[in-house]
Amino acid sequence: MFSGRSKKYGDVFKFQIFMNYVIVTNEPDAIREILINKNYPKNEKIYSKIGFPYNERQVEKLNKNLVEFFFLKRFMGLGLVTETNDERWRKRRQIFNPGFHRNVLVKCLGEFNEKTDQLLEKLRKISDGKTEISLFKEINRMTLDIISSVAFGFYIDTINFPENEFSHNITGSFEAVNRCLTDPIFMINPFNYWKKRKYKKYIKDLRNFAKEKILDRLKEIEDNELSAPDDILTAIVTKCREDKIEIESLIDDFITFFNAGQETTANSIAFCFLELGKNTHILPRLREEIDSVLGAKKEVTYEDLTKLEYTECVFKETLRLWPPAPEILRVSTDELCIGGFKIPKNTQINLSPYFSGRNEKYFPNPNEFRPERFLNEVSSYSHFPFSLGPRNCIGRNFAMIESKIFIAKFVQNFDFKLKENQSFKPKLMTTLRPADGTLCFISPRT
């Protein structure tokens, strides 16, 4: 829709929702101004639905039993993604930044490799070229195990035991929020009573699990700080204890990191193999690089990652076509000029990595999968899958390391062929996902 309107009206246009106008732009100077120079806030009405599904934020001061009956539980609350107050957000972001620095994540490469190897071993047992596999489902389990162990120091082995309670609650909670965002009459439909009760339980159980893990780590630090695991959870808990941040806020961030660090990466990797399966002419060059860098090695080092340049281009080209979050929504706090048009204060502005990534002005033949585009520098104001400015994605380095290791090891070990009778279109939830999950058949590489 946006692509067609852009061709007709240019890089800046508007549409109306009831009495409100929404501005859409993919003009690079405007993107820089909105996300970096002015750092406009997120749209509170929309992000409160993710943090507090079904307007629980507005009624949480009412009778608790009334809230429990009519509304879903607090989900991501006021975590890094959903917090719209800039001052509070900055304070929290400063707490988490050190845990996601590249030099910290490099120390965790052993965990990234180990979880990837566990999934490859599972896939090897069914790599007969005949068994249908949903790559998204398998990778989604791996990314859940990675974020659990690397960031929070617990091990659940969803790869081999996908029906565990934690995985079940994660999946169910995300489904609950998606229903909130995509079905406005869901809560008032009496036929959804039992579904609502089930969603409430998913969210309640997930937050209780998070609380238990946080309290366990607090006790571990209090008993012997030196023996506590050196991971993101310890860093968060230690800093928050010093700053006297309440437990519910810690739970918000615990849930946020699983939401932002698991499914989004799994979606992107699944899209990557969907594109590689459709564009098989890309594979020889990709394999040549991986064979040259890794050979028969089983452990991918940081030095190896820096040499996998074309592999990174393949993943970046995937993100250009299929960014995890297709839209970034901000609200102007003052009057702004975009492309000669005056935009009033308090106007919603939509910036779309999906829309910008398919703009032929910046990417010739935009619907073609051409990783070579990224061998040369690409403007960050036309390609911004992890957003830009102060509120860019804190997990960018995490996602890039995780994805490159899996892509390299999978291509190193397997041949694959896509199932022909499947949808190659995206499914829009809170993120973009391959509609059928990238169905394929794999066999040991010859």
From TrEMBL:
<dbReference type="InterPro" id="IPR002401">
    <property type="entry name" value="Cyt_P450_E_grp-I"/>
</dbReference>
<keyword id="KW-0479">Metal-binding</keyword>
<protein>
    <submittedName>
        <fullName>Cholesterol 24-hydroxylase</fullName>
    </submittedName>
</protein>
<keyword id="KW-0408">Iron</keyword>
<dbReference type="GO" id="GO:0033781">
    <property type="term" value="F:cholesterol 24-hydroxylase activity"/>
</dbReference>
<dbReference type="GO" id="GO:0020037">
    <property type="term" value="F:heme binding"/>
</dbReference>
<dbReference type="InterPro" id="IPR039983">
    <property type="entry name" value="CYP46A1"/>
</dbReference>
<keyword id="KW-0560">Oxidoreductase</keyword>
<dbReference type="InterPro" id="IPR036396">
    <property type="entry name" value="Cyt_P450_sf"/>
</dbReference>
<keyword id="KW-0349">Heme</keyword>
<dbReference type="Pfam" id="PF00067">
    <property type="entry name" value="p450"/>
</dbReference>
<feature type="binding site" description="axial binding residue">
    <location>
        <position position="393"/>
    </location>
    <ligand>
        <name>heme</name>
    </ligand>
</feature>
<keyword id="KW-0503">Monooxygenase</keyword>
<dbReference type="GO" id="GO:0006707">
    <property type="term" value="P:cholesterol catabolic process"/>
</dbReference>
<dbReference type="InterPro" id="IPR017972">
    <property type="entry name" value="Cyt_P450_CS"/>
</dbReference>
<dbReference type="InterPro" id="IPR001128">
    <property type="entry name" value="Cyt_P450"/>
</dbReference>
<comment type="similarity">
    <text>Belongs to the cytochrome P450 family.</text>
</comment>
<dbReference type="GO" id="GO:0005506">
    <property type="term" value="F:iron ion binding"/>
</dbReference>
